[in-house]
Amino acid sequence: MAGEDRERSDFSVALVTAIALGVAALGIVAAILTLLADDEMAPAQSTDIGRVTESRFEVESAAVGETLPVEVVEPPGGSEGRPLVVFLHGRGQDERSQLDEQGLFDGIAAAGSRAPVFAFPYGGESSYWHDRADGDWGSYVTEELIPELERRLGTDPGRVAIGGISMGGFGALDLARLDPDGFCAAAGHSPALWRSFEETPEGAFDDADDFAGHDVLGAAESDPEGFAGDTELWVDIGESDPLEPGVDTLEAELAPTGRLESKRGPGGHESEYWSAEWASYVGFYADALSRCSTEQPPPGR
């Protein structure tokens, strides 16, 4: 019996030791994964032409008074000399909201050597990407973020595009309007556009004067030829999107200029619609940036 007790004791000790080692190993794996998640150049996923990488860093913004994160997706071959797309998220989204979109990576693969670098900044819950009482969100993008991206990544300062979804689509068109020589291309994907302050949702603008200073549709109506200078423009929207009337108005004003490409598709104001269109978004940016003069003045400068 004593021998059996010793065997049971030895087995128990071995079992406890094995469990402890297993827990420790899991802790080591978790630590490694945490380090990878925080690493500036953690690998994202592969395409047919090589490895796409994600990086993450922060920008100390005097314009907003906060330290703000930004996610970057670089095509195979790195970012040096590449064109840059700054992509603005929608209301309630953040800098990581688009990083699970397979169409983004498929589009980068399809663009090959023309594929741009994509930067996804954080713009607050409902900033609508314009200078306002709680921070100069538009100035942050043009005067702080883009120069910092160029410094860190070596992207081509003369080939920059801006785009975004919903709130970000409004912001992209508004920034292109305010800086008509700064961007090669600007795109509003289901952009949040309204004809009057009374139509806007709570929090989109500080007041009627704030809306008037960023009235994209009013600017297009009053000066369609001068709207965003020579910037190539894109808008798209789902056929059942309640914001479609705003896009209809923008199309009516800007289509005669020959600079606006527009698209309709099945769907509403929802992620399923944008997911289905992501590859076409990348194609638009890659094509427009490949046509852009490298002498384009940098945004905000």
What does this molecule look like?
The protein has 301 residues and is of the alpha/beta class. The protein has helices spanning 2-38, 102-111, 137-153, 167-178, 208-212, 216-222, 244-254, 271-291; strands at 43-47, 50-61, 66-74, 84-88, 117-121, 131-132, 135-136, 160-165, 185-189, 232-238, 260-265. The chain has a nine-stranded mixed beta sheet, with helices on both faces. Strands 6-7 form a two-stranded antiparallel ribbon. Helix 6 packs parallel to helix 7. The protein starts with a helix and ends in a 10-residue tail after the last helix.
Helix proportion: 25-40%
Most strands sheet: 9 strands, mixed
Percent of residues in β-strands: 15-25%
- Give the low-pLDDT segments: 1-49
How are strands sequenced across the largest beta sheet?
1-2-3-5-4-8-9-10-11
User: Could you tell me the mean pLDDT?
Assistant: 86
Radius of gyration: 24 Å
Structural class: alpha/beta
Determine the N-to-C terminus distance.
Answer: 87 Å
Total count of helical runs of at least 4 residues: 8
Count of distinct strands: 11
The best one-word shape is globular
Order of helices and strands: HEEEEHEEEHEHEHHEHEH
Characteristic key phrases:
21% strand, alpha/beta, 11 strands, 301 residues, two-stranded antiparallel ribbon
Summarize it.
By secondary structure, the protein is of the alpha/beta class. The protein contains eight helices and eleven strands. The strands form two sheets. A nine-stranded mixed sheet has the order 1-2-3-5-4-8-9-10-11, with helices on both faces. Strands 6-7 form a two-stranded antiparallel sheet.
